[in-house]
């Protein structure tokens, strides 16, 4: 079963709604500078190309603490358990490459 984020406020996909993009960017602001730098580069390159699956995977990652997220972004750890979905792993690879 595919995990898809559903927004009941409107029917616009993430890429076509500037308000949704701004909210996601704001949510990605973190307490650790290293995380902020990675997300800033990521959004600069890929913000308009994100699919609903990408947004759902990013949302899952943003639920982590700053230190857990940094460890994943810097490949100190790998996603485990229900976080280790194909979409999260793929998005994490993109985040690590920016």
From TrEMBL:
InterPro entries (alphabetical): SDH, SDH_sf, SdhE_FAD_assembly_factor
Main location: cytoplasm
Source organism of this protein record: Caballeronia insecticola
SUPFAM superfamilies on file: YgfY-like
Name of the protein this chain belongs to: FAD assembly factor SdhE
Keywords on record: Chaperone, Cytoplasm
Example GO BP: succinate metabolic process
Domain of life according to the entry: Bacteria
Localization, UniProt: Cytoplasm
Gene Ontology cellular component terms for the protein in this record: cytoplasm
Entry's family note: Belongs to the SdhE FAD assembly factor family.
Upper taxonomic lineage: Bacteria, Pseudomonadati, Pseudomonadota, Betaproteobacteria, Burkholderiales
């Amino acid at each position: 079963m595919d995990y898809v984020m559903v927004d009941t406020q409107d029917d616009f996909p993430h890429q076509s709604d500037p308000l949704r993009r701004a909210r996601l960017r704001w949510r990605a602001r973190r307490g650790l500078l290293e995380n902020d730098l990675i997300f800033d580069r990521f959004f600069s390159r890929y913000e308009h190309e994100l699919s609903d699956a990408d947004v759902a995977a990013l949302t899952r990652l943003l639920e982590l603490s700053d230190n857990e997220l940094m460890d994943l972004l810097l490949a100190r750890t790998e996603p485990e358990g229900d976080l280790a979905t194909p979409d999260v792993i793929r998005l994490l690879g993109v985040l690590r490459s920016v």
